[in-house]
Protein 1
Amino acid sequence: MQERIVILTGAGISAESGINTFRDAGGLWENHRIEDVATPEAFQRDPHGVQSFYNQRREQLRDPAIQPNAAHRALAELEQSLPGQVLVVTQNVDDLHERAGSRNVIHMHGELLKARCQSTETLVPADRDLDPALSCTVCGAAGCLRPHVVWFGEMPLEMERIYATLAGCERFISIGTSGNVYPAAGFVAEARASGAHTTELNLEPSEQLTAFHEHRHGRATELVPAYVR
Ligand code: BJW
C-alpha cells in the first residue's frame, strides 16, 4: 500500500540522544564553517580536514551512550502499527531511526556510516575512520572514497520517491528541523498542496511555521510519543 503519512525529521530528533544539531547554540555550524566542511569544493581543497570532521562524528555515533530516544521509538512503533503507510524521510546522517526499529526510512542527506566511491558510486561501510587516501575495492583507484553525505549544492537522495509520496500523502509531520535547508524546507508546501494535514513538532517555531496547519513546541521525546500514540 502507498504510504499515507510522511514524517520529515531533522537534527532536533536526535538532540536528546546526545548528537549535536547544526544551528542551535553549541551546534556544529558554530565551530565549523559550512564552506570548510560541507561543500564539494571543501572536500576537493582539503579532503583530510573534511574526513576528519566526519570521522569525529562517526566516533561520536559509536559512543555506547548514544542511543535512540523515545521520539525515534515512537515513530518505529507507528510504522509497525500501520504497516506500509509510514515513510520517514530523515535529513539526519545518523542511524538512530533504524536502531529504534524504523524500516521505511529515506536518508535524503546520506548516511555517516557509509562511504561512496567517486568513480563508480559504489557504497561501502564506513563504521571506522575513513582515510581519504584509501582506495575503493571496486575501482581500485586511490583517494576516491568520499563520505556518503549530501553537501550544499548537491542533489539530495531519492527525491523522485519523496515527491511522489508527498503528492499522495494525507498527513505530513515535521520533527526537529529548523526549516532552513531546501528542498526539505519546501516539503510542507508540497504536502499541503496535495491536501495533506501538516504538523510541526519542534523545540521552537521553525522558519516554515506559517506553512503548517498546526504546531506544537517542546522536546521531541515528549511531543512525538504524545502526538503519534
Ligand atoms: C529540537 C530539539 C529537541 C533542537 N526536540 N526539536 C536560496 C534559496 C533556496 C535554496 C537555496 C538558496 N541558496 C542555496 C540553496 C540550496 C541549498 C539551501 O537550502 N541553502 C539554504 C541554507 C538557503 N540547498 C542545497 O544545496 C541542497 N541541494 C539542493 O538544493 O539541490 C538542488 C535541488 C533543487 C530542486 C530539488 C532538489 C534539489 C543540499 C542541502 C544539503 C544539506 N546538507 C547538510 C549536511 C549533511 C551532511 C552532514 O550531516 O554533515 O544537511 S547541512 C545540515 O542542515 C544537514 C541537515 O540535514 C540540514 C538541516 O538541518 P536541521 O536538521 O534542520 O538542523 P538544525 O540544526 O538547523 O535545526 C534543528 C532544529 O531542532 C532547531 O529548530 C531546534 O529548535 C530543534 N531542536 N533540540 C525538538 N530536543
Protein 2
Amino acid sequence: MSKRTKWDTKGDLDESKNLPIYQHKATLQQAVKDNSFLVVTGETGSGKTTQLPQYLHQAGFWSNGKIGITQPRRVAAITVAQRVSQEMHCSLGREVGYQVRFDDCTTQDTVVKYMTDGCLLREILADPVLSQYSVVILDEAHERSLNTDILLGLLKQTLSSPDKASKGRSVPLKVVVMSATLETDKLSVFLGGCPVFTIPGRTFPVTSKFSCAIGPKDTESSVYIKEVVKVALDVHTSEMAGDILVFLTGQSEIEKACDMLYEKAESIDYRYDVQDHKVEGLLILPLYGSMPTDQQKQIFQPPPPGIRKCVVATNIAATSLTINGIKYIVDSGFVKQLNHNSRVGMDILEVVPISKSEALQRAGRAGRTSAGKCFRIYSPAFWEKCMPEYTVPEIQRTSLTAVILTLKCLGVHDVIRFPYLDRPEERFILEALKQLYQCDAIDRRGKVTRLGELMVEFPLPPGLTRALLQAASLGCEDLLLPVAAMLSVENIFIRPGHPEKQKEADKKHRQLGVQAGSCNDFTMLLSVFEKCKASDAPSAWCKDNYIHWRALKSAFSVETQLREILLRLQKRDFPMEKFDGNKSELFRRCLCTGYFTNVARRSVGKVFCTMDGHGSMVHIHPSSTLFDQEAQLDWVIFHDLLVTSRIYIRTVCPIRYDWVKDLLPKLHEVDVYELSSVAREEVTDEEVAKWMTKETAKRQTEGSAEAV
Ligand code: ADP
Ligand code: MG
C-alpha cells in the first residue's frame, strides 16, 4: 500500500515534558530576567523554538509587552506558531500568532508572536526600541540569514547605548539569541560577552555511507533526483522500520521525486520485496516553503501502524523543523541558495553543493531518538572537492541593497562601520550604495532621499518599488500594483508534466498573452490578474487556463496590502508628475524607471547583451511570451535571470532606447566613494586607487577619448 492522502492522528501535546529543555525551565526563565542578552544553544529538536517562548509567557513577561520570536524562514514561523497555539490551547492568531511578509495572523490579544526576521526589521523601522515587546528572541541565528545578522547588529547597537535603549520604554528589552550548537562563543563575544546557556542533549550515533552515484561533475537535477528516489526505495525495502527524510533542493524537484517514488512504490510486493515484515506501506510527503499549511501539518503526524513515512524536503528540515521518528536520511548533497553571481552582477537562486557542516547537520537528524543511518548519494571525491567546510553567511554572498536602505532609514549613516557579526566585503556595500543611488533612494552624499523614505516602506525589491512609485506619481498605480503583486507570489503558470497537456497549457497561456494587447510578460501578468478578478468563477477560470488559483488568490491579497501601503504614503506629501502619451507607453516607461539596470539589447540572432557594464550574453527564457519573436526586438528590460548552461532573462518587456537613454549613464557615472562619504577615513589610499582605476579612470579615459 502506498499512501499520500490525509491522515488524522492526534499529535501528542504532552510530549513537550519529555523534551531536553523542560528540565531547565526555571533556570532559563531566571536567566532571561537577569540578563539583557542571552545566548541559548542546544541540539535541534531540544525544544528551543516551541518551548522557550511558552516558558517566558508563563514567567509573566507578556505583561510588559509581546514575546517576539524571529525565524529566517516563512514556513517555520507559520508551522511553529500553529503548533504552539495548540500546545497553549488557543486559536491561532489570538494569544499566539504569526506574521510573515503579506500574511499577518495576529490580533490585539497576541502576546507570543512568531515572525520572519524581515518582519521584525520592518517593525524596527517604525519603532526603533521595539516598545511593544518585552522579549525578542532571534531564533536560528546559526543559519546566518541576512536579516537576522542585521538585527543582531542593530539590537547590539541599541542596547549598548542606554539612552537610546530606554527611550520610549518602561522596562528594558530582553534579547535572546538561539542557535544550534555552532558558533555560540562568537555570538557571545559579539554581544559583549553575554552568558551562553547550553541545553544538554543526548544524540545517538549516525553512520554515514557515501555512494559513487554523484561525482564532482554531476550537477544535473535529473541525475540527483533519480538517485535519491532509488536510494530512498532501497532503504524502504531493505532497512528495518523507521521513517525516511530525503533532502532535495526545491519545490519542482521535490514534486518530481514524490511522483517517481509514488509510481515505483506502487509495484512493491510487500510479501517478498521488503526485509522488515512489519513494514506494509510507504507514505510519501513533500515539504517545501510555499506548500499549503494544512498539508504541512501532516508531516508531523506519526504514520499509521505498519506504514513508513518518507518526507522529501528542502533544507527547511535540517534545523528549522524537527520531524519525530526519522531514522534514515537520504542526502542529495545539494541546496538551493541565493547567491550574488559576479558573472551577471545580480543575485540568483542557484543549486549548489552543501557545505560539510551542513551535511553533518543533515545526517544528525537521524539520531535524535535512536541510532540512525545517513545515505549520501555523492562520492568521497565530491565531499573533498566540491563541498566547502562551512556555509558562507548570506550577508557575504547576496545583494545588500534593501538592508542598506533600511539601515540608512534607521539613521545608520555609516554603513561600513556598522557592527556586523561577519563583515561583508566592502565592494558589496559599495555596490548596494551604487544601486540605491541609481534608483534615487540616496543622494550623491549617501543621504536618504524623500523617495528612499517612501521606497523602504514596501517589502519589494528596490527596482520594482521604484517602478511602482513612478507609476503612482503619474496616477497609474492600477497598472503596476497587480504586476508587483504577481511578481511577489510563487509561479502562477501551471506547467503540466504530460507533453500533450503541456502543449495545451502553452496554447492557453499564449492566448492570454495575445489578448493582453501590447504583448509582453508584464502586461501578461496584469491581464491574468484582471481577467481572473473580473471572472464570476475565478477558480474555474484558473483551472481552464492552467493558472495556479492559490497563487492568484495570494496575489489578490498582496495587491490589496501594497495598495494600503501606497494609500498611507499618498496621504503625506507625495510627488506627482504629468505624462502625455498612451497607456502602453506610460506603463513601459514606469517599468524602465525601476528596471533600467536590467536592460539588454539584441546583438545577433536570438542573443541579447546586457548594458550594466557586465555585458553578459543572455537569451529570452522559453516561458516568455516574447520567446521566438526575438528577431522583432531590439531593446528589452527584464525582471530576473536564470542561469543554467545559458543565461536566460525572464519576465521581459520590449522598450525604446529613448526611454532609458537618459538613465543609462547612471549605470557608469557613479563615484562610489562619494556615496559612502563617511567611509572615506577608513579606506587606505591604495584601496581608493583600486577603485579609481575601475570607476573613475574609466570615466576619465572615456572623457579623454571624446575630447580627441
Ligand atoms: P528546537 O527549536 O530546539 O530545534 P523545536 O522546539 O522546534 O526544537 O522542536 C521540539 C519538538 O516539537 C520536536 O520534537 C518537534 O518534532 C516538535 N514539533 C515542532 N513543531 C511541531 C508541529 N508543528 N507539530 C508537531 N510537532 C512539532
Ligand atoms: Mg528551532
Protein 3
Amino acid sequence: MQANNIPARPFVVPSLACVAIAKDPPVRVFACLLALALSACDRLPGFGGGAKTTFDGDSALVFAQAQLAFGARVPGTTGHRQAGDWIVERMRERADTVEVQEWTHVTRGGRQLPMRNILARFRPELTERVLYITHWDTRPTADSDRNLGARGRPILGANDGASGVGLFVALASALRRTPPAVGVDLLFVDGEDYGAFETPVEDTTRNRDVLIGSQYFVRTMADSYRPMFGVVWDMIGDAFLQIYQEGHSVRGAPEVVTRVWGVARELGYDEYFLSQTTGGITDDHVPFLRKGLRVIDVIDIDYCLDGGTACGGDPSRNLHHTHEDTIDKLSAESLQVVGDVALTLVTKLAGP
Ligand code: 1BN
Ligand code: ZN
C-alpha cells in the first residue's frame, strides 16, 4: 500500500527538476541555493497535509534532492566531498554542536579513502540520549542493475543514501524549533556501501569495506557513551513504503523494535510499519549491537518498481543497487510517515 494512497510514483518537486539533471558546478550551486531557500519554508510552524507532527516531509524530499545534485557520493569523489560539506553546513545551522570525525580508510585492495562521520547533537549536556544513524555515502557499483553493462557505474542513491539525509535535515529543523527534553544525536556515517556484502551476511569479518563509518564510530566512541536506544534509518523514502521488522534488530534489541512499531501504531501507520519479520540484514546497526548498544535497523528493503511485496517474486523489479534508484521513486508522504515516527519517538520521552 502506498503512503496516504497517493497515485503511483508521485511528482517530484517540479521547480527542482533541474537539480537531478544538473551536471556542471554552477548549476549545482544554484540547486543548493534553491534548496537552502526552500529550507526556510520548513521553519514555519504548523502541520502540513497528513502530517502528525511538526516534521515536514516536503522539506525532507527537497533535502534528499539537494544531495542528488552532487551526483553519486562515492568516497574519494568530488560529489562525496561536496555532499559531506553540505551536510556539515546544514547541521551547523540547526544543531547545538557538530562534531566531524575524519580519517583515511585503506580498502582490502589497498585504496586510500577519505572518510567522514558527522555527529550533530541536540542538548549535548544531557546524559539521557537517543542515537539516530543514517549513511550518507552511495554505492560505487550498480550490482543489481538489469543492464549488465551498466553495473560498473556508481548509483545515484536516492533512496539508498539521500533519503536518510533528507530525513535527518528535516528532523534537525523540527528539533531546532522545539528542543527535545532528552538529548538527540544525529549520526551521518560514511562508507556503509563501498565494498561487497559477502554471504553469509552475518560474517562481518569478510565484509571489510562496508559499514566503515559505523565500525569506526563504535571503535572510537567513549565507553561512557550509552544512549538509551538507537535507530538506523535506511532506505525510508520509497513511495511504496513497507518496513518489516529486521532480523538482527528483533533478536538483538526487541524492546526497541516494540517501542518504534508501537509509536507507528499509535500514529496510525501500521500499514507501513508491518509486523512481519525479515531475515537479518548487514547494516550499520550491527557494529552497535555487537558493542552492546540497543540499536535497530528501520529499513524498507522491499524497494520494488510499482510496489508489491517481494516485487511479486520478480527480482528484476527490485530497484536496490540499480540505476533506477532515482528521486521519482521517493515520496514526501513516505518521508512524512517515517519523520513523524522518528520525531514522536524522541518527543514522547520525558526529560531529567
Ligand atoms: C543497505 C543499503 N544495505 C546496503 N545498502 C545493506 C544491505 C546488505 C541490504 C545486504 C541488503 C543486503
Ligand atoms: Zn546500498
